[in-house]
Design a protein that fits this description.
Largest sheet: 5 strands, parallel
Strand content: 5-15%
CATH class: Alpha Beta
Number of domains: 1
Distance between the termini: 14 Å
Shape: globular
Helix content: 55-70%
CATH superfamily: P-loop containing nucleotide triphosphate hydrolases
Bound molecules: adenosine monophosphate
Order of helices and strands: EHEHHHEHEHHEH
Number of strands: 5
CATH topology: Rossmann fold
Number of helices: 8
Length: 193
Amino acid sequence: MRLILLGPPGAGKGTQAARLVAKYGIVQLSTGDMLRAAVSAGTPLGVQAKEIMNRGDLVPDRLVIDLIDQRIDAPDAAPGFILDGFPRTVAQAEALDALLEKKNMRLDAVVELVIDESELLSRVENRVRETLRAGGAARADDNPESLKIRLEAYRKQTAPVSAYYACKGALKQVDGMEPIETVGQAIDRAIAA
Ligand code: AMP
């Protein structure tokens, strides 16, 4: 099972991906998580990405394409994967098509979580509160200024990715405003359709 989860910051991609991991025994490949790990480890990639991420802009396509190219070859991704936060530009979507073809792999579904924009700020604020309550540290880009830029990047660079998959007849849209369980069931139906 190979899936893409699309949706703006705060749409619930991470939450739904975790559920799909448990249900299908596949791995969640989040470019955001991979980049944050690189930033924490202080690798050359992390050093390059840190300021861009903190601001809320997208890192250059080539960096994330290379990350995904290598990561999907790992043994734990053999049963399948959910791409969360990738592709985020049409150039990334085209590169993904090319590398899946090269590896002889096919996507099973592209699912977009559709959310009212007015809801997103409060969802991200909620995520920060819950992370802090659990004793964790808030993400450096979970603040109103960075979120504004992240939403702008989403509108300009990532929204066209939905159109890209819609043109191919691969896009399934799910109402992400419903409760978590209902959204999960709608995703299951979209995947099975
Ligand atoms: P996320 O955890 O998916 O919200 O990603 C956090 C940040 O990592 C984004 O705001 C970008 O700066 C960077 N990032 C993650 N995935 C990508 C991607 N596919 N393309 C470019 N930048 C990305």
